[in-house]
Amino acid sequence: MPATATPADLYRHSLSLLLDKDIRAWVGLWAEHGVMEFPFAPPGWPERLEGREAIAAYMRDYPDHIDLHGFPDLKIHETTDPATIVAEMRGVGRLVATGSPFDMTYIAVVTVRAGRFTSYRDYWNPLAVEELGTDFAQGGAR
Questions:
Q1: Contact indicator for 68, 97 with CB cutoff of 8 Å
Q2: Alpha helices in 39-126 (DSSP H)
Q3: Are residues 96 and 67 in contact, defined by beta-carbon separation less than 8 angstroms?
Q4: Domain spanning 7-139, CATH class
Q5: Which of 36, 82, 120, 135 could join 97 in a cystine, given CB atoms 3.0 to 4.6 angstroms apart?
Q6: Using CA atoms, how far apart are residues 117 and 112, in angstroms rounded to an integer?
Q7: pLDDT digits over 43-89, tens only?
């Protein structure tokens, strides 16, 4: 993506990369010192990842656990800071190990500088992890 891409453009592109299971390219959208936070992370899950390498390690095996099929209901809201957006969406697909459906609602607050993610606060429902079962909890997107 060009450095002139809007935060909304970059975010939409990042979702396409996740659907394509191109984690390497997805990680490439991050600034070297970007920070990914999970304010509602349950015990044993990371609350904060600092730097592209930590984010890459976290996401490396994501496609082995969750087969994403789509992000319905995507809504992107601009904020008073042109570098920051708020995204609402669902991620749907299946859990690879069991074939069980995956359906998670997300709200993300995302900041982009110079065409790269610098901050990503991911507000997902930790209670849904219990419903997804132990396979997801043990190896999902941790």
A1: no
A2: 52-59, 62-65
A3: yes
A4: alpha beta
A5: 135
A6: 5
A7: 888 999 999 999 999 999 999 999 999 999 999 999 999 999 999 99
